[in-house]
Predict the 3D structure of the following.
Amino acid sequence: MRVGVLTGGGDCPGLNAVIRAIVRKGERIHGDELVGFLDGWRGVVEGRTTPLDVEVMRGTLPRGGTVIGTSRTNPYKVDGGVEACRATLSDLGIEALIAIGGEDTLGVASKLHQEGVRVVGVPKTIDNDLSATDVTFGFHTAVQIATDAIDRLHTTAESHDRVIVCEVMGRHAGHIALYAGIAGGASMILVPEEPFDIDEVCARLKARHEKGRFASIVVVAEGAQPKEGSLVLQDAEVDAFGHVKLGGIAKVLADEIEARTGFETRMTILGHVQRGGTPTAFDRVLSTRFGIAAIDAVHDGAFGQMVSSKGDAIVRVPLADAVGELKTMDPSLYHEVAEVFFG
Ligand code: F6P
């Protein structure tokens, strides 16, 4: 079978491991010919491809990023984009497509499937906010990178008796902040799901510092929001899927904390460091299992399905379910575990 593969949305450690597994099992076991679409849906719209085979994928298991590139192009927002996708698939004789991506990429895959395109999805996002799968690859790596950074911030914060605000990714959900905050021993964790009150944050830090010579690490997810009226944030630009460009809450918070408490405060935005570089062993295994399950799904004719991790198993779920609802953090992990260490 001639099978197309694309990676869309923000890149993520483990993408190459998924592609490698699709190619290995596709070529060696199913006898497929694999075609990579360059730069996500943009490559399908523009008909830009690259051949994928076992030789091309050699050495890519530990490599971050994606060898076929990615973009945030939404064919439904490009003039004639959907018709162009159909034409490309038919001109190139692509019999099935594997779309590896998050909410936006899989949302497009789901719509195209409803219009007759034979597509299988693989869930990807460091944010881990996709419903219908217990976990996405890249999340474990991002948490490890953020935890390593927080460990380093502790020693410099302690030496100077400072507050350090550490901003991590997490647009709609605070999974990375929560896990890295717990693992890194944060004094406060601020997440999009729980709007924060700046007075309360400062009161908790003051109470902590009044107990002695203490430094504090505040971990904040980029999408964290102040309670209405407690702090004003600036408006930002939006992308093709209507998402605002985030990044910068740490600066606002650090300035406010220093002004309100008098504690010397610094901030660090981890940003794309969390998405770059080699995947952890856990993510390499998950990615490999997803890739193999995806090419098997193609051969079973399970179109309109996404591979998903449920407990110890890799299962299939309808693409429509995967993009229907965001998976937010577990409130009990926040309130019953993380919060015990706040202040
Ligand atoms: O892929 C998800 C994500 O990493 C979010 O956590 C973050 O808000 C966004 O991507 C950043 O996007 P970009 O790389 O386009 O700046």
